[in-house]
Amino acid sequence: MNKILFGTAALAMSASMALAQDVVRLGTEGAYPPYNFINDAGEVDGFERALGDELCSRAELTCEWVTNDWDSIIPNLVSGNYDAIIAGMSITPEREEVVAFTQNYTPPSPSAYAATTDGIDLDTAVIAAQTGTIQSAHVATMEGATLVEYPSPDETVAAMKSGEADAVLSDKDYLIPVVEESGGAVMFVGDDVPLGGGIGMAFRQSDPELREKFDAAIQSMKDDGTLNAMIVEYLGEDSPKF
Amino acid sequence: MCYLTTGKHMAFYGSFGTVLLLLAITAPVALAFGFGGAMAARSRVAPLRWLGKAYIAVVRGVPDIAFFLFFVIALDQLFEWLRHQAKCPDWDAAIRQGNDFVVCPAAKLPLSSSPQIWHEAYGFSLAVLTFAIVFGAFAANVLFGAMKAVPRAQLETAEAYGMSHRQTFWRILVPQMWVYALPGLSNLWMVLIKATPLLFLLGIEDIVYWARELGGSKTPRFTDYPHGDWRVYYFGALLVFYLCFTRVSEIVLGRVMKRLTHGQATMGGEAQRKAA
């Protein structure tokens, strides 16, 4: 027993020593405004960029941003190509079997349908959603509706606009700018759907020290209200706050 | 500063260089893999022959996307595992912890403290290696067939002159087989040119990734240059690029074919001889 304890302590020490000098690599998708996107300068920008940088400075870590395809974002995390996912990833029980989440940094926020006309019967419609998301999982359970999946969020909206799909189901925060800037061509239809347990950062299950540092930083941002201010700034007044 | 010179567009232009560099490195490496595979597959040593045939059959049978999703990660883990064994013999925690793959920090490839450029270079080399293994298997099959297509009489003559197996192979068989291999290899080259979008699965941003990213509709909130769905124009530009590239490849391959045909006992070689 002693030996195990000592081993764990030594491991924890060596791990935290290693972390002190290492760079923490943050993986994101870079295609999901306002959460994360590539700005005109070619850099990662958006809500999660600002949030991630603030969390890193609070946890006194040096962070670096990496973009990765959504499809392979979890396999590359568990295999160690970067240390955390911060990519608008909702906390779900299925994902928790593979990765470990921090507490959520957005409250559970609704998903919504958008379409080009409001006369759509969602029960029998063709609905576009991004592959491997809580929205695509939700449409798959809807009897009568047909799911079409696309690899990136932008392509789901493009499919709805071009008529390939009748409607698109996505995070409401993602669709709000799409609807507002469309000048009336795109509108929300049906009721909002509450999905997921909010968005969190995902870490390897074997990496609890790093996760706890970010968890504490998120908690401190919740406590002093900076997180709410950031949500209002990037996601809008109407987005749910803590 | 205008729309076409934003940092994003610069990255788009740069990615053409990435793709060309990838092709320039991958093609010879894949050819070497193919040559090795073909040599192994026709070896007189049975285990080597099985290895060569298994390589050709297995790799050709696995879909590219599966290769790029799983094989590359497995390859990366293999390298890190080897380094882990060498550098951290005292490490007593398990490497496989559930889904996670955890090696000691000194064994990470590249070290997580190294600058992003090294991560990109490493990803790039993994991509080259994976492309070389996949396309090498196809090339091996082409070369294997080409080696068989060299007329038996040529090899018999070499043997009659007292050449050893090795001499016959290098002096008679190899110089003559290229003319049979070239049509198959040129097909592979054309496929390889267009296979680069698979790179984004490895985090490498190629021309198709940037075309999709730049062409996707942009709202004024997130950019100074809002526009609708312009993907068709960006993909149109890529179409022109690919067509030009294919045309140049065809011209070059045509010239190579002409050279290789020279003095060969094939219909093309005979026609050249008569014309001269």
Structure description:
The complex is a heterodimer of chains A (242) and B (276). By secondary structure, chain A is an alpha/beta fold. Chain A folds into 2 domains: 144 residues, 3-Layer(aba) Sandwich (D-Maltodextrin-Binding Protein, domain 2); 85 residues, Periplasmic binding protein-like II (D-Maltodextrin-Binding Protein, domain 2). Chain A contains 9 helices and 13 strands. Chain A has a 5-stranded mixed β-sheet with strand order 5-1-6-13-7. In chain A, strands 10-9-11-8-12 form a 5-stranded mixed β-sheet, with helices on both faces. In chain A, strand 3 and strand 4 form a beta hairpin. Chain A is globular, with a radius of gyration of 19 Å. The termini of chain A are far apart. Chain B is built from 9 helices and 2 strands. In chain B, helix 1 packs parallel to helix 4. The model of chain B has no long low-confidence stretch (mean pLDDT 88). The longest helix of chain B is centred in the first third of the chain and has 35 residues. Chain B is mostly helical. In chain B, strands 1-2 form a two-stranded antiparallel sheet. Chain B has a single domain, classed as MetI-like fold. In chain B, strand 1 and strand 2 form a beta hairpin. At the A-B interface, helix 1, strand 1, strand 5, helix 3 and helix 6 of A face helix 1, helix 3 and strand 2 of B. Chain A: Pfam families: SBP_bac_3. Chain A: InterPro entries: Solute-binding_3/MltF_N (IPR001638). Chain A: Keywords: Signal. Chain A: This is Amino acid ABC transporter substrate-binding protein (PAAT family). Chain A: It comes from Salipiger aestuarii. Chain B: Keywords: Membrane, Transmembrane, Transmembrane helix, Transport.
Descriptive terms for the model:
heterodimer, A: 242 residues, alpha/beta, D-Maltodextrin-Binding Protein, domain 2, 2 domains, five-stranded mixed beta sheet, 22% strand, disordered N terminus, B: 276 residues, mainly alpha, MetI-like fold, two-stranded antiparallel sheet, 2 strands, 1% strand, Solute-binding_3/MltF_N (chain A), Amino acid ABC transporter substrate-binding protein (PAAT family) (chain A), signal (chain A)
